[in-house]
Amino acid sequence: MQQADKERVELLINKGFQYHQDGHLDDAEPLYEEALKLDDNNARLYNLIGVLKLQQSDPDTAIEYMMKAINLSKSEYYYETLFHAFIKKKDYNRIISYETTVNMLFPKCFSLMFNLGLAYRKLFKFKEALYYYERALRINPMSYEGWNNVAVIYRIQGRAEDASYAMKVCYDLSPDDNTAYYLGIDYMSAKQYDKGLPLFEKRLSKEIAFTSQNKTHPQKIRKDNEWKGEDIKDKDIFIYYEAGFGDLIMFSRYLPLVAKKCRKLTLMCQKPLTPLFKENKHLGIDTIIDSFDPKIELDADVHASILSLPYLLGLKDDNVFETPEGYIVPNMDMVEEYKKKYFQNDKIKVGIKWRGNTTLEKNRVIPAELFNRLTYVDNTQFYSFQTFEGSEDVNKIQNIIDIGKDLTDFAQTAAALRNLDLVICNDTSLAHLAGAMRIPCWIILPYNYDWRWHTDLKHCDWYESVKLFRSAQIGDWQSAFDQVLEEMTPD
Question: What gap in Å lies between CA 299 and CA 294, rounded to an integer?
């Protein structure tokens, strides 16, 4: 190449790079292309065009250019940009294909080690992912993203104490509310509620619940009259729901403790739960509301989200699990009605459910047809308690009675449940209701399960009548059903 051409190429690259840096991609691109016509052996130029194409949401073309750059020069940076393009395409196997190469050429590159960890994590190969994340952290021990991803894998593996250690490092590096919340989750998963509950107050859903109630009761629901755990014996308290049905059922165990401390307790719950809690005013509930009514004046001196109650009550250690035995009771007349309609047989009666709110937790959904292995167990009659979303899948199950089609609220569900010998279901509100009623319940958990079930699954701390079964790996429900079938047919 003539000296003049070299100078022209350098000028075009520099001018194009300036446009590129300023975000003017359409102006930078023709300058890069013109330079490439003069010098088609320029690795830096190929990589620059590749990066530009990636920014234009064209990862396929980006990869072509980046590969040409790497063929000309084995640059650490070129491999980094190539990995970013693979991540954009979610082509994690392509990243793994370069594992040997980058380990040989760039074993001290944080970005390459980190993205090898990311690729393995996305492929659900957690042992390999952890290996590379830990290598990345040895290169840069101050990486928030590194520690955060290590915590995620520890969490998935059920290593709650290791996860809390990693999240503590994250919190020291970036003490924001999101990090505090996940640190709190890890502490609680390890049953360290004295450390976890204060951090659990940083959860986003609490702020959403507050904002929602404040819109309808702006004079009563304010930051300055939020209950902080102080003496309220001469005050009225308003407690409102947060998150799902199961959370409210689970945390309603604390209502009697609050009722002893206040003058009057008003509970705001979701409409499908209203009939159930009207049957259970022994929990200390004076008034139940489920929607805004301008004719009703809310009498409340202080307010609190129901998920904050164990923290506000100052509960520690095993006192967090303290609850009246069978604290939810059904309407016995309704129990008899369902008995006459559905349960007039001498078989072992088993209720099942396979799906909850998929907006929140899709990984908890069990393929309905997997229950077919259980419905053929001798002397059993299975009942579907699946309602609304997912109820159409009842047709995939043999030898089952569909009671879910007749259930529109939790009072009805509780009455029907009382006629069962056993409940088998995914991690959903039905499990919490069965546990709160002290009905034997087997919960089938995904591999990556919720914090509240803790790390020792041999015992359920929240409900004496609950047994826990966990999938052996992500997506492997079959292994959990093997355990359940063995439990049902011990001989």
Answer: 13
Q: How far is CA 466 from CA 319, 441, 460, 461, 481, in A?
A: 18, 5, 6, 9, 16
Superfamily, domain 332-488 = Glycogen Phosphorylase B; (3.40.50.2000)
For 98, list phi and psi in degrees, rounded to 5: -100, 10
Helix H, strand E, coil C: the string for 72-87 is HCCCHHHHHHHHHHHH
User: How many CB atoms neighbour CB 457 within 10 A?
Assistant: 15
**How many Å separate Cα 403 from the centre of its chain?**
29
Q: Which of 395, 385, 490, 359 is nearest to 441 (CA)?
A: 385
Q: Which two tokens stand for residue 40?
A: 């088609």
List per-residue pLDDT tens for the chain, 491 residues long. Answer: 577 767 888 899 899 999 899 999 999 999 999 999 889 899 999 999 999 999 999 999 999 999 999 999 999 999 999 999 999 999 999 999 999 999 999 999 999 999 999 999 999 999 999 999 999 999 999 999 999 999 999 999 889 999 999 999 999 999 999 999 999 999 999 999 999 999 999 999 999 999 999 888 888 899 999 999 999 999 999 999 998 999 999 999 999 999 999 999 999 999 999 999 999 989 999 999 988 776 677 889 999 999 999 999 999 888 999 887 789 999 999 999 999 999 999 999 999 999 987 776 778 999 999 999 999 999 999 999 999 888 999 999 999 999 999 999 999 999 999 999 999 999 999 999 999 999 999 999 999 999 999 999 999 999 999 999 999 988 899 999 999 999 998 77
Nearest Cα to 212, choosing from 240, 249, 184, 187?
240
CA distance 404 to 437: 18
* Fold type of domain 3-164: 1.25.40
| CATH code for the part of the protein at 205-321 | 3.40.50
The angle, 0 to 180 degrees and rounded to 10, between the axes of the packed helices 59-72 and 76-89 is 160
- Please tell me the distance from the alpha carbon of residue 220 to that of residue 224, in angstroms, as a whole number: 10
For the whole model, what pTM was predicted?
0.89
- Ranges for all domains in the chain classified under CATH 3.40.50.2000: 332-488
